Amino acid sequence: MFSALDVQARHKLQKQVHKICKEQHKTILFVTHDIDEAVFLSDKIILLSRRPGRIKEIFEVKMEHPRNREDKEFEELVSKIIKAIDELQDG
Fold first, then answer.
1. Reported pTM
2. 91 pLDDT higher than 80
């Protein structure tokens, strides 16, 4: 969603999106190709297949906010999702 921005601006806007969601008690459907962004913002990540788009896997993100991209749990989930994407492309 924020891919055209520099890293600092992207991270600032991601924090703002989370803050608004929390304050407004809203659910957001967020579509992104940025796995780090998905893990940072989401409570649930849905991995879709190629055409036709079907749900291939659902990842529950159980980490508390605010999330730290350097935490081991964060990095492990990013790696797990990358592996699932790689398996989709190989299969």
1. 0.89
2. no
